[in-house]
Amino acid sequence: MAELRFAHAINRALAECMEEDPAVFLFGEDIAEAGGPFGVTRGLHARFGPDRIRDTPISEAAMANAAVGAALSGLRPVLEIMFMDFMTLAMDALVNQAAKARFMFGGQASVPMVVRTPHGGGISAGPQHSQCLEAWFAHIPGLKVVCPSNPADAYGLLKSAIRDPDPVVFVENKALYALKGEVAEDAGPIPLGQARLARAGRDLTVVSYGATVHKVLRAAEALAADGIEAEVLDLRSIQPWDEQAVLASLRRTHRLLIVHEAVEAFGVGAEIAARMADIGFDELDAPIVRVAAPFVPVPFAPALEEQYQPQEADVIAAARKLCA
What we know:
The protein is α/β, with parallel strands linked by helices. It has helices at about 5-20, 45-50, 60-70, 90-100, 100-105, 135-140, 150-165, 210-225, 245-255, 270-280, 300-310, 310-324, and strands at about 1-5, 25-30, 55, 75-80, 115-120, 145, 170-175, 180-185, 195-200, 205-210, 230-235, 235-240, 255-265, 290-295.
């Protein structure tokens, strides 16, 4: 085992995929010598050269369309969008081109591209650099959406994403880049669409993904001191999501709490809640509860941002209410 930071695990996965497949190349704003805004691609330019690690102009629309064209021509581009908020500028390429190509060409063409992008708050970056927009892309047939919570999953899921024949939006929470965790030296890809049981429990199921998984686990430890044993599922993949793992956990605990940093309204939690209310209705002993951000833009001020983001105390309060 090797202890790696989240960012270094992504770097390792990128390097190994580039070594394994000459069709893999990276491009984005300042990703070459600078290593990107968070240093994730640092060192790769010196290792693989300017033909495979390319800086781009500040035009997300141009980058995304170039990635689609490269993927259709047989390459495997990995595009970095500096902040998820700027995915808005790449929507046509992703939603109308990348996601639709396999369908429109009758299965004769595929778009094996990955878009890496950081989301989330915690650095006082304000409403245009802190949004969690993963639910938008999970709503689009033809796109896959991944959001790891730890270095091992970041490594394994990114390898699967790069090898996937279809477009994948790979979401990285900014608060996790410095997180340390063990990654096996011989670790392999992790299949997309499989949730991870992060903690076993009997009294309620808590489903989360990304950075909020760690808040949920800390809340679960606090709840255990009061005799409430929460089972924690790390979703890992948002589209496709592992509804059978959630249903299996619900059958054990009979209560469901969903936690994510994104805005609650029309979010990932809403889809999970609706689906479990359908296929898991007979297992429920209480209403499904969501803990997520309010329906307002992300504030700049650190104190307000902390109130905006779901915290451990919010998870604990919701869990206690569910189990009352």
